[in-house]
Amino acid sequence: MAAILVIDDDKYIRSSFEDLLIPVGHDVVALMTAEDALNYLQKDEPDLIFLDLKLPGMDGLCFLKTLRQRKFNIPVVVITGHANVDTSVQAMKLGATDYICKPFNIDELLIIVDKIVSEKQRDEQLEYFQKQREAIFGFGDIIGNSKPMQEVFRFIQQVAATPKTTVLIRGETGTGKELVARAIHFKSDRGNKPFIEINCSAFQETLLEAELFGYEPGAFTNASHRKKGLLELAHHGSFFLDEIGDMAPGLQAKILKVLEKQTFRRVGGTKEIMVDTRIISASSRNIEQCIAEGSFREDLYYRLNVASITLPPLRDHKKDVLLLARHFLKIYNAEFKKNIRDISEPLQEKLVSHSWPGNVRELKNIIERAVLFEEGELLTGKNISLSETSTQIPKDPAQITIPEQGISLYDIERSLIIQALHKASYNKTRASKLLKISRETLKYRLKKYKIKP
């Protein structure tokens, strides 16, 4: 279960630890002196150390100081007599985790071991998941060797180092604005705090206001209890406003107040709530044109545009197309339990020559579909068409004939949804209008057909 080092010059104490801890599954190494222990630590690192303070040669306090100097991060429990509690307190100040008095109680010893070992395992798991998260949310799916993408990576690193700077990410739909926002957050000092996001184009103005700022009981019909807004949940973290160009002017003024004063009020409330969060915004619209048309506040634009980047469309860094395609191939190989070795040369040529109006998101969806239906060891893409967006569907459904061999309704419906997304530049609201269904129905079908726009 755990590797435990006991340092005590009393042979009886060393034997007692071995007799008590080895039978319950722990590995115990018992040594007489601090010097022996330091030599041992050069070869192995235990999960827990029990340390007597009175030792021949180097005493326990000096051993603790040496551990600190050498940057060991091992929990230490001090073994002490009742008369030496003051010395134990001094040891705690030097980094000891706990102390146990002689003669020690067996149950007390086992409780201390279980508690410290469990805490250490939890910390190690947290460290592991932190590394996993950094791998996922570091640069993650933001991949590229081209010069434009290297500039994006450089921007992320520079902005992440200034955790209060507001950021505006611009670019066409599907270029990875959300991924860049996440990377900025998780590489910054705010990375251990919440990353909260909202799409401003997905809500009506009143609903968006309630989501952003929360509300008090009685603020509107059915508001029976207080609800914290997403801004409040993003305290000490980062708040990502996607498609901020679609935000109503009234809400823009309230966001401007958050940026200027770091305060806001819940809907129906009078209390000013302080919030410390970095605002990251994104838009696929031409903000300057919106300002000229009077639909976007110029003063808000200047506050959002402190650090700004325009992400390159995929057609401007085609050098990265195959790199991205192989990355997505690896992902969907694992997801669909396939073993496709590589992309066939004809498909590689098609991928590189395509204009990618839907950018990286379109490429990802194309590879997902190709992998899903591929039966060989090479990805041929025989079940996909890169010119799908130009396919004309007859207005009269009666003109669609079913061939003798039959046809997959699943494939047809999935293909129509993908086409609508392409035509609408992956805007779900516009895509749902093209399909003459509600946005909620489209969201349901995206989930049903495992389409990730």
Helix/strand/pairing category: alpha/beta
Helix content, binned percent: 40-55%
Number of domains as seen in the coordinates: 4
Regions with little confidence, pLDDT below 50 for 5+ residues: 388-396
| Widest β-sheet, arrangement of strands | 2-1-3-4-5
Distance between the termini: 46 Å
Number of helical runs?
Answer: 18
Q: How many beta-strand elements? A: 16
Full CATH superfamily name of the largest domain: P-loop containing nucleotide triphosphate hydrolases
C-alpha geometry: extended
The profile of the biggest β sheet is: 5 strands, parallel
Strand content: 5-15%
Mean pLDDT level: 86
What is the CA-atom radius of gyration, in angstroms?
A: 30 Å
In CATH's first tier, which class of the largest domain applies? Alpha Beta
CATH topology-level name of the largest domain: Rossmann fold
What is the correct CATH architecture of the largest domain? 3-Layer(aba) Sandwich
Walk me through what this model shows.
The chain is of the alpha/beta class. Strand 11 and strand 12 form a beta hairpin. The protein folds into four domains: about 5-130, Response regulator (Rossmann fold, 3-Layer(aba) Sandwich); about 140-310, P-loop containing nucleotide triphosphate hydrolases (Rossmann fold, 3-Layer(aba) Sandwich); about 315-385, Orthogonal Bundle (Helicase, Ruva Protein, domain 3), CATH 1.10.8.60; about 385-453, Homeodomain-like (Arc Repressor Mutant, subunit A, Orthogonal Bundle). It has 18 helices and 16 strands. It has a five-stranded parallel β-sheet, sandwiched between helices. A five-stranded parallel β-sheet has the order 7-10-13-6-14. The protein has helices at about 10-20, 35-40, 60-70, 85-95, 105-135, 145-160, 175-185, 205-215, 230-235, 250-260, 285-295, 300-305, 320-335, 345-355, 360-375, 410-425, 430-435, 440-450, and strands spanning about 5, 25-30, 50, 75-80, 100, 165-170, 195-200, 215, 225-230, 240, 265, 275, 280-285, 305-310, 340-345, 380. The two termini are about 45 Å apart. The protein is about 45% helix and about 15% strand.
